[in-house]
Structure prediction request, 289 residues.
Amino acid sequence: MENGNKVLKEFLENLKYRGFSPHTLRAYRTDLSDFILFIQSQKVQLFELNHQVILKWLQVMENLNKRTIARKISSLKSFFRYGKSQNYKLVDPIPWLSSPKLPLKLPLFLSIQEAKELFLNSPIEPIEIRDFLILTFMYGSGLRVNEVRNLLLEDVDIDEGRIRVMGKGKKERITFFPVPLIPILKKYIVEVRPDFCPQAPYLFLNQKGKAFSTRYLHMLVENKSTKFLGKKINPHALRHSFATHLLEAGVDIRYVQELLGHKSLTTTQIYTHVSKKKLLEVYRRILKD
Prediction:
């Protein structure tokens, strides 16, 4: 199985090079390592796979939930596509295999009133200013947690209110931040950030002058939302809220797609379901009243 592990290592390195998050890399590594262990138990080499082995693998997974099965199938398909692109003699045994149909999972998002409450208190202390800006970039610019973490000082054009973002797959895009944020951002860059480490390239720095861990950023959002809203949310909920509120305000979905950095419009369209759900709630409330 040495060759199989070699291909797996190369595949994961390729995903890392393309900018996939540590969380996604862990999921791929777990799914594919489990698969390789399974075929080892069947005394079959990766380069000798056949439909019978795949059917046994599916039987082993039948008690898992649909979302987990879909993820594992997707991981395996991506792995075989990579092997084919690198001219490995891998015979894809699952081109016929489709993932189980999943129920539509609407993203968690804040109401406009909740978003206002989260950003109601003006920051005063240096760390409060930095943390306020981090949350505002997630909501006001729709940035992913890794995109906020990896923002460089040179990526921000304060006077124009623009940000250059390196998104998934190292895809670059331009997005914007709210104009009222400009004086706070200037204060942070001129007065606050130099106390952490003026030579560091990242925009947001911890007390050691380094980029934050994604774990810390998750904890920051959870703590602030619990404090100001009485409920715990994650960073992605702020990004979801950004997209949902834009669509509810009538912004064209293709503009929202561009701002979010979605490769496919289909990914952005989930927010139209959220907006329709909100519309239905308003409609029913009006009829009830």
Remarks:
- Residues 22-41 form the longest helix (20 residues).
- The domain at 2-85 is CATH 1.10.150 (DNA polymerase; domain 1).
- The chain has 13 helices and three strands.
